[in-house]
């Protein structure tokens, strides 16, 4: 490691990333490339001799960026957010810089101790009961993802019950979850079994929810399932709660039920847990004192760069120091608490609360736009910053709006303007609009509604608009540029478009003739490598 080279290259990389954020709105949110696109653009093997950084930056711009789906775009509303922030970024950078492997206390005492302290801070912000704090003999640990956290919990719960009932009873252990529980649980129970967790796939109960309980699990349904398993001689041992519509299960009652049957109760609040730092949303986790473990993703809606998933347990921790290698699957671990520490310090609790409230306010705005348009309906009550909605199908629609809404989703996403995802509730295809990108402001909500959603919804038939191609001459020779024609910044005779450069030969043969675009074109592609220029657009690109 040459410190001066690091300084020079590091500054250039930071400049590059800052420019990326500056121009992030000019890219199609959902990457528009086809599978295998990169194989055609990169050499078949690694270079024998070192290459220069500038060539690599050029490749990042021209070959990598087009294949990026921009999770940090203010127009990103898909899945759940995955926040980045200056604070989180600096923490990530420092962690990479120190590059320790902190599996035990002695391998870097600060790494273990900072993690304990920062997770106690966060536990206090969430008003978690004392038994989840290190001072209460419990404590938190940072896992890579919520899925990993669920696996860790599954193993801990399994071992606890097997110590009591004997190892031979493995095949009798039953896990309960709702049909809204994150697919991570099913993945662990179905795919990783029996290698890791050992739970028999037929012993995973995915219990049904519906609109009558706003997609939260009903107590009767769980009780019935437990009773019938008990009478079949099985052993209920774990309940995992959570959701795709951001519904909240009745935590307190489920916790009591779990306790009555001596089951482990895990709360997976990966997304909504962040909101509970605001006093007005804290009641959603009332009853958390009944839980054995509680998880939340700081890397979702809490400004901490991926990955940072926090898991608290009510363990009985008797030793003076923690060796976190025993609280996770791998041995080695990164210094991830730095990210969370910087986020908590550079923002402060009050700002973090306003951050959450602002997104919930924006989601409310979007919800109002949907409710005020008779073509649409909101299909599940909005609690946090997720709005679940759909186009109302005509009466007697063959598939009850499946094709209609799927078509709308495809059209909207391939416009590149915003990115949404979907779920299925009560058998219906539902669009999900999740607010939570740090750069999203009021204007993005308005445009998201107006331009792709409302406009496309009013078409009789939804067609994905063809993407236009033209040939452009750049300093590196003749290139084919892909235009996103319905671009954000356009006036009568000038359109600012996103351009993607590809080798003209392959692109022409792949796409055949392309249609001429009208007017003048300026590129806003990160102005560093492609100079900001204006071209007269050719009438017929083939003759250019
Ligand atoms: C996002 C999410 C997960 C999965 O999170 P990863 O960290 O990507 O594993 C699990 N559960 C819930 C409730 C979620 O929202």
UniProtKB/TrEMBL annotation:
Q: Which cofactor does it need?
A: pyridoxal 5'-phosphate
UniProt GO MF annotations = carboxy-lyase activity; pyridoxal phosphate binding
Modification type N6-(pyridoxal phosphate)lysine: residues: 300
Q: Which domain of life is it from?
A: Eukaryota
Task: Give an example GO cellular component term for this record.
Answer: cytoplasm
What InterPro entries does the record point to? Aromatic_deC (IPR010977), PyrdxlP-dep_de-COase (IPR002129), PyrdxlP-dep_Trfase (IPR015424), PyrdxlP-dep_Trfase_major (IPR015421), PyrdxlP-dep_Trfase_small (IPR015422)
Q: Which terms under GO biological process does the entry name?
A: amino acid metabolic process; carboxylic acid metabolic process
> What Gene3D superfamilies does the annotation carry?
Aspartate Aminotransferase, domain 1, dopa decarboxylase, N-terminal domain, Type I PLP-dependent aspartate aminotransferase-like (Major domain)
Q: Which family does it belong to?
A: Belongs to the group II decarboxylase family.
What protein is this chain from? MYB family transcription factor
Organism encoding this protein: Musa troglodytarum
């Amino acid at each position: 490691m040459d410190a001066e080279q690091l300084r020079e290259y590091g500054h250039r990389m930071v400049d590059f990333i800052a420019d990326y954020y500056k121009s992030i709105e000019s890219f199609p949110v959902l990457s528009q490339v086809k599978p295998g696109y990169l194989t055609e653009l990169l050499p078949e093997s690694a270079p024998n001799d070192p290459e220069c950084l500038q060539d690599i930056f050029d490749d990042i711009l021209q070959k990598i960026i087009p294949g990026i789906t921009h999770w940090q775009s203010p127009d990103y509303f898909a899945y759940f957010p995955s926040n980045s922030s200056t604070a989180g970024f600096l923490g990530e950078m420092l962690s990479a810089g120190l590059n320790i492997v902190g599996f035990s206390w002695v391998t870097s005492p600060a790494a273990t101790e900072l993690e304990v302290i920062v997770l106690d801070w966060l536990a206090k912000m969430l008003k978690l009961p004392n038994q989840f704090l290190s001072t209460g003999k419990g404590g938190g640990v940072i896992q890579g993802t919520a899925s990993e956290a669920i696996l860790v919990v599954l193993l801990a719960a399994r071992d606890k019950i097997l110590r009591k009932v004997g190892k031979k009873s493995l095949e009798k252990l039953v896990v309960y979850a709702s049909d809204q529980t994150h697919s991570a649980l099913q993945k662990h129970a179905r795919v990783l079994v029996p290698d890791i967790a050992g739970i028999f796939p037929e012993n995973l109960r995915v219990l049904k929810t519906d609109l009558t309980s706003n997609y939260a699990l009903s107590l009767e349904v769980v009780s019935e399932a437990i009773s019938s398993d008990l009478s079949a001689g099985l052993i209920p041992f774990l309940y995992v709660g959570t959701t795709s519509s951001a519904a909240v299960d009745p935590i307190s009652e489920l916790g009591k039920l779990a306790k009555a049957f001596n089951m482990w109760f895990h709360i997976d609040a990966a997304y909504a847990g962040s909101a509970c730092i605001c006093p007005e949303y804290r009641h959603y986790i009332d009853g958390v004192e009944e839980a054995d473990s509680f998880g939340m993703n700081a890397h979702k809606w809490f400004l901490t760069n991926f990955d940072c998933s926090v898991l608290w347990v009510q363990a009985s921790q008797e030793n003076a120091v923690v060796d976190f290698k025993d609280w996770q699957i791998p041995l080695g671990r990164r210094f991830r608490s730095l990210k969370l520490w910087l986020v908590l310090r550079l923002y402060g609790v009050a700002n973090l609360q306003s951050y959450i409230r602002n997104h919930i306010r924006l989601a409310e705005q979007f919800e109002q736009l949907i409710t005020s348009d008779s073509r649409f309906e909101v299909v599940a009550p909005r609690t946090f910053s997720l709005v679940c909605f759909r186009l109302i199908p005509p009466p007697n629609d063959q598939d009850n709006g499946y094709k209609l809404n799927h078509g709308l989703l495809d059209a909207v996403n391939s416009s590149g303007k915003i990115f949404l995802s979907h779920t299925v509730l009560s058998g219906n295809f539902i669009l999900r609009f999740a607010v939570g990108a740090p750069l999203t402001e009021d204007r993005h909500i308005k445009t998201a509604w107006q331009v792709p959603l409302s406009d496309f919804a009013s078409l009789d038939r939804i067609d994905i608009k063809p993407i236009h191609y033209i040939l452009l001459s750049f300093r590196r020779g003749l290139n084919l540029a892909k235009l996103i024609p319905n671009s954000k910044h356009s006036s009568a005779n000038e359109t600012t478009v996103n351009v993607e450069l590809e080798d003209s030969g392959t692109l022409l043969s792949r796409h055949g003739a392309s249609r001429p675009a009208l007017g003048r074109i300026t590129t806003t592609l990160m102005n560093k490598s492609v100079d900001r220029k204006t071209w007269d657009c050719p009438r017929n690109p083939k003759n250019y």
